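Recall that a protein's primary structure is simply its ordered list of amino acids. Everything else, from secondary elements to tertiary packing, is in principle encoded there. The following example makes that idea concrete.
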Amino acid sequence: MKRLALIALAAGLLAACSTYTTPAAGVPLGAIVGTDVAEAMAREPAAVFPARMAIVRVAAPGYVSRSAVGVGEGAFSVLTTRDIETDPDFERLGRMPQITAVAPVSRLLVPAHLGSVADLRASAAQLRADVVLIYTLDTRFRTESAELGPLQTIALGFLPAKKAIVTATCAFMIVDVRTGFIYGTGETTATQDQRTNFWGTDDAIDEARLRAEREAFVNGLGEIETLWASVVREYG
């Protein structure tokens, strides 16, 4: 009986010490565009319509989560693993007016060093794309008593029995591959909330993250469709 009690105690301590590390952050898209005002004012749209669209997801340097790892070094990284995106999502973008094809940028086309949007435009040019859709997901965790930032380790057994909230924000912009002209930007947010006692395992927390990110991304698809319709009206 004493031995069984010790085993039960050890199992309880292991469960209490189970941890989850929050993923790295997204990347502020404005920070990778450049800040030269004269250069920005000089850019002009040059896309040919109907257009080919490249798609690329970016994140903070050295991004890592349980479902994806960033590619490239420098000011940001590129995520080529589809953990929240699906084939029907890209097919949906391909059905937008004046779009002939969409093509996600593969890891084979990502430069080793990533300094600005110009590097992504170079990758998109390899796909013969006219425009590139660049997006990022930034996810934040918090309870009623604490804000949990990126790359923060959570001891699951010591979470207070309060409300847990996961907020994911999807920010995006559509950029002219030839000139760097920005056709428009947008942002959507989604929230998943539940009691922290549902966060008993790292799998449970990560599932909440993926649900929030997926919802923010799907909401973003609707905003992208609206933005692209206005781009076609003005430039197509």
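DSSP finds six helices and eleven strands in the chain. The CA atoms of residues 22 and 151 lie 5 Å apart.
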